From TrEMBL:
<protein>
    <recommendedName>
        <fullName>Strawberry notch AAA domain-containing protein</fullName>
    </recommendedName>
</protein>
<dbReference type="InterPro" id="IPR039187">
    <property type="entry name" value="SNO_AAA"/>
</dbReference>
<dbReference type="GO" id="GO:0031490">
    <property type="term" value="F:chromatin DNA binding"/>
</dbReference>
<dbReference type="InterPro" id="IPR026741">
    <property type="entry name" value="SNO"/>
</dbReference>
<dbReference type="GO" id="GO:0006355">
    <property type="term" value="P:regulation of DNA-templated transcription"/>
</dbReference>
<dbReference type="GO" id="GO:0042393">
    <property type="term" value="F:histone binding"/>
</dbReference>
<dbReference type="GO" id="GO:0005634">
    <property type="term" value="C:nucleus"/>
</dbReference>
<dbReference type="Pfam" id="PF13872">
    <property type="entry name" value="AAA_34"/>
</dbReference>
<feature type="domain" description="Strawberry notch AAA">
    <location>
        <begin position="2"/>
        <end position="100"/>
    </location>
</feature>
Length: 102
């Protein structure tokens, strides 16, 4: 999972993966995917990088399902991967106000 500030940085993520020889790894922008299970037959993402912005990570659907919940479900209990927090110093303002849900 690759978490960053802006969706345009997914191109930088792709370049970085290419630079380390991971050209076969697909990058899936989460903001282009529905709020359903990522590994469902409709979406079918089993492997690769899910690219998500910090603001998308805290977003939720009309039913209240968050992108964070979606990613946690996709990773599962046996997750054996890497979560990259790019430009994490810029995420400091994403903490919800007192009394609101994270």
């Amino acid at each position: 999972r690759w978490v960053s500030v802006g969706s345009d940085l997914k191109y930088d993520a792709r370049r970085d993966l290419d630079d380390v020889g991971a050209k076969c790894v697909q990058v899936h922008p989460l903001n282009k995917l529905p709020y359903s299970k990522l590994d469902s037959k409709a979406i079918g993402i089993k492997n690769g990088v899910i690219f998500v912005t910090y603001s998308s990570l805290i977003a939720s659907s009309e039913r209240g399902r968050s992108r964070l919940q979606q990613l946690v479900q996709w990773c599962g209990h046996e997750f054996d991967g890497l979560i990259v927090f790019d430009e994490c110093h810029k995420a400091k303002n994403l903490i919800p106000d007192a009394g609101s849900q994270p």
